[in-house]
Amino acid sequence: MNADAIDIFFWIILAIVGITIGVVGYLLGKANKPQQTVDMSLLKKFEIENAKLRADLEACKKRATTAKIPKPKSVASLSTPAVPTFDAKAAKAALGKKVKKDDLKIVEGIGPKIQELFHNFDIKTWKALSETSANKCQEVLDSGGKRYRIHDPASWPMQAKMAHEGHWQQLHEWQEKHRAGKF
Fold first, then answer.
1. N or C: which end of the chain has fewer CB atoms below 10 A?
2. What are the φ/ψ torsions at residue 128 (nearest 5 degrees)?
3. Would residue 97 be called left, alpha or beta, if left means φ above 0 and alpha means ψ between -120 and 50 degrees?
């Protein structure tokens, strides 16, 4: 045999071996792939549970629409929610410093300049700050310029609510756990 014939046989054998290995690899890979089967008994169980939950939901909706709320006999009989009173001694005991009522600076992250920005937006009490969204707080900060953008006001309404409701120990523990006012 001459050299050209050997080269052709070499390439033909190489191609046959390559194709054979590719087919065997494909078949082995397909055989080892786990079959995805649905456990019909489990599916049926979930369908039954879903139907029960839907029925319960409908029953609750019907009860809610047909429930009669008794009307109070007079406006005086309505109970008004208790307004928390400020206890300076309890605040000092928990926070370890003297606290003035509605001082926004007790909120971790608010200093005198930021408090002034909030006062410019007529947010002057803990209650007002607690009812302010984090987006509005960010708007207040943005009004002060670039140097206030580094602050994260996400927790400020929550801290203000704790102060407004007189949860001083809880506020202190939260501030100790989350330095710089971040969650």
1. N
2. -65, -40
3. beta
Burial class from Cβ neighbours inside 10 Å (0-12, 13-18, 19+) for residue 56 reads exposed
Handedness of CA 182, 103, 117, 136 (dihedral sign): positive
Q: Is 145 helix (H, G, I), strand (E, B) or coil?
A: coil
Q: How far is CA 73 from CA 68, 70, 76, 79, 109, in A?
A: 15, 9, 8, 12, 48
> For residue 171, how many other CB atoms are within 10 A of its CB?
23
Taking the model in full, what pTM does it have?
A: 0.54
Return the pLDDT at 128: 93
What is the crossing angle of helices 156-164 and 134-143, to 10°? 110
Residues in contact with 100: Cβ distance below 8 Å, sequence separation at least 6, in sequence order: 88
What's the average pLDDT block by block, 10 residues per block, for the chain (183 residues)?
76 93 89 68 82 82 70 54 78 89 91 93 93 90 88 90 91 81 48
Which residue's structure tokens are 């019907």?
A: 62
Indicate the residue type of 6.
I
pLDDT computed for residue 73 by the predictor: 57
